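User: I need a structural model of GNAT family N-acetyltransferase from Tigheibacillus jepli for a docking pre-check later this week. Nothing fancy, just the predicted structure tokens so I can convert them on my end. Input:
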Amino acid sequence: MEIRKATFKEVQQIRKHALIVLKESTMDHVHPTAEKARYMTPSLDGSSSYLVAVEDGELLGWIGVGTTFDFYTDKMVGIMTELYVYPHARRKGIAEQLCRQALVNFQREGYENVQLNVFSGNPAKALYDQLGFQDVATLMEKKL
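Assistant: Understood. Predicted structure tokens for GNAT family N-acetyltransferase:
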């Protein structure tokens, strides 16, 4: 398996799955719409991109990576915006390999911190915990 930056064609394939990714990643806390899906995908303006996991020419999964300014620390930080592995390719360590490669890339580029957002109940949180991510803030909600 190879992990590398996504090609234009692969980005188009990834974007076709944006609604599915939005629905799965938000654990039904968000009603998926095309507008919300567009907002969550990396802009690919140079500050963000996708890393893909590919085997024998088949796209298995991807991770969105980019940068943002952290107003709490007054520093630029790396961000992991989207992690997805096709259902048939899950439970093979692909998500972990994508995350680890993203972290290596961020470290190589000189970032001291990497952030991500994960919804309550998302099974990917266990992976993020295993990789050393720590809770920084908690968004709480009460339905009325």
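Before docking, keep this in mind: The mean pLDDT is 91.
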